[in-house]
Write a structure and sequence with these properties.
Elements lengths: L2 H15 L6 H8 L3 H16 L9 E3 L22 E2 L2 E9 L3 E8 L7 E7 L6 H15 L9 E6 L5 E6 L3 E3 H7 L4 H20 L2 E2 L8 E4 L4 E3 L6 E2 L10 H4 L3 E3 L6 H4 L6 H17 L11 H10 L5 H8 L15 H7 L2 H9 L11 H12 L11 H11 L1 H24 L7 H19 L6 H21 L4 H19 L9 H19 L4 H20 L3 H21 L4 H18 L12 H21 L4 H21 L2 H18 L6 H20 L3 H21 L4 H21 L2 H21 L4 H20 L5 H18 L4 H20 L3 H21 L4 H22 L6 H23 L17 H16 L2
Antiparallel strand pairs: 1-13, 2-3, 3-4, 4-5, 5-7, 6-7, 8-10, 9-12, 10-11
Helix pairs in contact: 1-3, 6-9, 6-14, 9-13, 11-12, 13-14, 16-17, 17-18, 17-19, 18-19, 19-20, 20-21, 21-22, 21-23, 22-23, 23-24, 23-25, 24-25, 25-26, 25-27, 26-27, 27-28, 27-29, 28-29, 29-30, 29-31, 30-31, 31-32, 31-33, 32-33, 33-34, 33-35, 34-35, 35-36, 35-37, 36-37
């Protein structure tokens, strides 16, 4: 055959392979000019169709520099192992052989008990250092994984010649694809099975292990229908301090992957993360739903496979399933024809879920396996998914699907209202008689419909649309009738509802704090005019507006203005209360104003008129709020009043926590929990869950301060469960996702206190990721930046405890974030306290690693901050802890210098005196702390007074000898 002829055949063949089988005959008739050419191409196509896809499913193994160890190669054929004993086990049969090892059936033969197992052994001839290192890696990984959907490790050892083996759970079953097809499982059943696989992979990821070879052959389903994940032979341990550190560098020489399931970054040889497993799971899910691999139709050359995985977008599963429905798939396994209903079920959400998991860019895939699983669960529950563009039409469709019967009548009414609204707006200028109709419809949108859905899960986006539209309509009407106070009042309330859904702190919102401040500003401009008329309701709303703005300013670290607005709100409500006695709405506002003013005084320098008396004033404000709400509850059965009472107890408990009074704080938080639980709605509304989560989270802080990490962790985990439920129910609720981030950080911090650094790092990194994304979305929100700094700091502390110098990077990140926050708001006390605490802890880390000069710089910076802060806010217990800590660190460094033999006598004498002075400063500050704790209110480890006393004693002993 001439080169020209082969080129012609190759071009026609390549195009034919891209077509469906039923499209190929017509194409060949048109493309082949003569019968001989047609026969040659057809022969190649027949050969292609008869070749199985198996090579796509076999790992591509490239092990460079394979050097066998001397005297370790047993060089035995597979059947030579049958009947042999390995430790307590006797081999009975060969189960299968992989790229680098064999798996045998065996049983326990030491008369202890009878149990069948699978024995995995390095393949004869491949017992090099590289392979054995990888094999030991798999054994180490399996030893750390105990999950019902992961094959268990029972035992391990080495043969007489030093080749490692391990005994693991014997799984009798089919691979997941064959199992689903054999039983002709429906789409819902396949998804349920797949969720168990996701749980296993997520479990491994939480322990910082990436599987790297997920495929149907490595997922066996037992006769009981339980999927088991196998073969962690090419898995990677991400933990920097994992026990696998000895062989992981060797592992990087391997390039082991299964082409059909490998991610683009694996094909390209780029760093592997958990996103690679998300991709592989996406391929498996694609096959379960379509019975085809996303790239099966491409030619078989390595170049084409690499190009497909890295560059070609797979077809939608619903499209592939529809093609499969038209013919029986031929090959080694006869598969059932997919019914027409199958591809209809895939269209929409499942298309989007699978294709999001298969995105080429790891950063655009699901952020975790848990997120993928959550979307699948939400699809099964007919809830909106994150893979789908979040349009109002889409979310409305999901809501209707879940509440078809109950919502039908409501939809008719709303559509009629909207249709009438559009019509009347068009005719307003020509028909004054319709003015009130338009106004009534606009009010119905923002007050009736909006308020009726505001507590429904997933309603955040719909609330914003309603509030925006209603505000526009009322604004247009107000321009036509600017002297109508009632219309102005309605417009102001519409702006306030819009502000709440944009960025109201503590409620479901979209994280638009700038937009919220703008909307509240529009409302205030109207309400200031109305309040001047002297009516009580107008003056009350004016006070509420000041409080709402103060709450947002506090969140974005505009503390000075936040306190001014809070004090203005308090002054307005106090005056109104004196004028309108026993008005429930006025008293509730007065109580809320006392709470906010007290809370703000804990974080700003200007909180008290007399320095040193801030705590007394703060506690007095909280007590006044409690007295008001107790009075209201005694005369009313309104559940919202009982919630107010629980909020008062919550803030008092948090005040106790700030002072270090952990036992009193726990008792007070328990009161709040009891009140909330007796007030809760039967449906466990999002507001109830949010309230209870906040109390549990702060109760965790109190337990941690008292040294009880176990109780702290239990409360943090309950808080995480509650806020995660809220966030899953309403993906558009920005505030709910921030609460998830905070809960993840607290769970990670508490786990770290129990000694499980791997689990702790997993939660801490999940939390910092949430706040990192939030900081991009809402850069004005300085509380987000503060949580991001704390997350990085806690990661640094865990790494530092493991002697990992990578902690330096996280210390530096946390420091940089807090310094930027301090520049943005110099009056925020908490920002500077946290910065000082980070600096002191960083000093400890640097001192431990022998970087004495750098450590001294950090301690001195912390001392400078601490002394300045205490001169303005001497009641701040947190700062006393940190200042005592910094002085202690400086004293320890100075005493080490004084004790060196190279120093002269006078230099030593001076050094010991300086060290003693520093220790005494530390002791003097420490004695000012009224209530001592193991962990400070902001989560820093408190120093031990014995370390101070030991330092002073050492200095005195040294000075007595000079």
């Amino acid at each position: 055959m001439t080169p020209e002829r082969w080129k012609e055949i190759k071009e026609i063949l390549s195009r034919a392979l891209e077509l469906n089988r039923d499209q190929r005959p017509a194409y060949l008739d048109a493309a082949c000019g003569d019968p001989t050419l047609r026969r040659e191409v057809s022969a190649l196509l027949v050969a292609e169709e008869s070749v199985a896809d198996d090579f796509l499913h076999v790992p591509d193994i490239n092990v460079p520099d394979m050097v066998a160890l001397p005297d370790t190669n047993e060089a035995q054929p597979h059947d030579a192992m049958i009947g042999r004993r390995l430790g307590s086990y006797q081999i009975t049969a060969l189960i299968g052989a992989g790229g680098m090892g064999e798996v045998y059936r065996a049983f326990r033969a030491d008369d202890q008990y009878r149990k069948q197992v699978a024995i995995k052994l390095v393949r004869a001839g491949l017992d090099s250092r590289l392979v054995i290192g990888r094999f030991k890696n798999e054994r180490q990984i399996l030893a750390s994984l105990d999950h019902p959907n992961i094959a268990r490790l029972y035992d391990g050892g080495t043969t007489e010649t030093g080749v490692p083996y391990f005994a693991m759970e014997l799984i009798e079953g089919q691979n997941i694809a064959e199992y689903c097809n054999r039983l002709a499982l429906r789409v819902k059943e396949r998804l349920t099975l797949f969720l168990d696989v996701c749980a296993a992979v997520e479990f491994a990821h939480q322990r910082l292990i990436v599987h790297r070879d997920i495929k149907p052959a490595n997922i066996l389903v037992t006769a009981e229908g339980i999927p088991k994940l196998l073969d962690f032979g090419v898995a990677k341990i991400l933990s920097p301090d994992a026990a696998s550190g000895e062989f992981e560098p060797t592992l990087t020489l391997f390039r082991v992957l299964t082409p059909a399931y490998a991610s683009p970054e694996q094909i390209r040889g780029e760093p592997i993360t958990t996103a690679s497993d998300v991709y592989s799971l996406g391929v498996v899910l694609y096959e379960l739903l379509t019975q085809r691999n996303p790239f099966r139709s491409l030619s078989r050359t390595p170049e084409d496979i690499s190009r497909a995985v890295c560059d070609v977008e797979p077809a939608k599963p619903s499209v592939v399933a529809q093609q499969n429905a038209s013919y029986e798939t031929t090959g080694k396994l006869q598969r059932k024809t997919l019914p027409e209903k199958t591809y209809k079920n895939l269209k929409g959400d499942l298309d989007d879920i699978v294709l999001m998991a298969l995105r080429k860019d790891p950063g655009r895939r699901y952020a975790s396996v848990e997120q993928l699983a959550t979307d699948i669960r939400r699809h099964l529950q007919h809830l909106p998914i994150i893979a789908r563009k979040d349009t109002l039409v889409y979310r409305t469709g999901k809501f209707v699907h879940r509440h078809t019967a109950g919502i039908a009548a409501t939809v008719i009414v709303i559509l009629a209202l909207l249709a009438g609204l559009a019509t009347t707006l068009a005719e307003k200028r020509r028909a004054d008689r319709r003015f009130n109709d338009v106004r009534k419809l606009a009010n119905s949108l923002v007050f009736d419909i909006h308020d009726s859905i505001k507590d429904l899960p997933g309603a955040t986006h719909a609330r914003q649309v309603l509030a925006e539209k209603a505000s526009q309509y009322l604004d247009d009407l107000a321009k036509e009738s600017s002297n109508d106070p009632s219309l102005q009042r309605e417009l102001a309330q519409a702006y306030e509802r819009l502000a709440k859904v944009q960025g109201k702190i503590g409620e479901a919102n979209q994280g638009d704090t700038a937009g919220a401040l703008q909307s509240y500003g529009k409302a205030r401009a109207i309400e200031s005019v109305l309040a001047a008329r002297g009516e009580a309701q107008d003056r009350l709303r004016y006070a509420q507006n000041f409080r709402s703005i103060a709450e947002i300013q506090w969140a974005i670290s505009d503390s000075a203005n936040a306190l001014k607005n809070a004090q203005q709100s308090l002054a307005l409500s106090q005056a109104l209360s004196a004028k309108v006695a026993n008005n429930q709405d006025v008293l509730r506002e007065l109580s809320a104003d006392y709470v906010l003013a007290a809370d703000l005084m804990t974080t700003t320098f200007s909180g008290a008129d007399v320095p040193g008396k801030a705590n007394e004033l703060i506690e007095d404000y909280y007590r006044r709020a409690l007295e008001i709400d107790e009075k209201l509850v005694s005369s009313s059965s309104d559940p919202t009043l009982r919630r107010d009472l629980a909020v008062d107890e919550f803030y008092i408990g948090r005040h106790f926590t700030d002072q270090g009074r952990s036992q009193e704080a726990v008792a007070t938080f328990n009161k709040a929990v009891a009140i909330i639980q007796t007030t809760a709605k039967p449906d466990n509304s999002p507001k109830f869950q949010r309230d209870l989560a906040a109390i549990r989270d702060n109760m965790g802080d109190a337990f941690l301060m008292g040294g009880d990490a176990v109780q702290a962790l239990a409360n943090y985990q309950e808080s995480l469960r509650l806020v995660a439920s809220n966030a899953a129910a309403d993906p558009a609720d920005y505030d709910a996702h921030l609460l998830v981030g905070e809960a993840e950080l607290h769970v990670g911090h508490a786990i770290g206190k129990t000694g499980n650094s791997n689990d702790a790092l997993g939660h801490l990194r999940a939390g910092t990721l949430i706040f990192s994304q939030a900081a991009t979305k809402d850069p004005l929100n300085q509380s987000v930046q503060r949580d991001l700094a704390i997350g990085n700091f806690w990661i640094a502390r865990i790494l530092a405890a493991g002697k990992d110098f990578a902690a330096a990077e996280y210390f530096n990140k946390a420091t940089a974030i807090q310094k930027e926050a301090m520049r943005a708001d110099p009056s925020d006390l908490d920002t500077q306290v946290i910065l000082a605490g980070i600096l002191a802890a960083n000093g400890d880390f640097l001192k431990t690693h022998g970087r004495t000069a750098a450590a001294e710089d950090k301690y001195h910076e912390a001392v400078e901050l601490g002394e300045r802060l205490l001169s303005k806010a001497p009641d701040k217990a947190e700062m006393l802890y940190i200042l005592a800590h910094a002085y202690l660190g400086l004293g320890q460094i100075q005493s080490s210098k004084a004790g060196t033999r190279s120093a002269g006598r006078e230099e030593q004498l001076s050094g010991w005196n300086q060290a003693k002075t520093l220790f005494q400063h530390s002791a003097a500050v420490y004695r000012q702390i009224r209530y001592h704790a193991v962990v400070t209110p902001s989560g820093f480890d408190a120093i031990n007074e014995k370390d101070i006393e030991s330092g002073i004693s050492r200095c005195e002993a040294a000075l007595s000898t000079h």
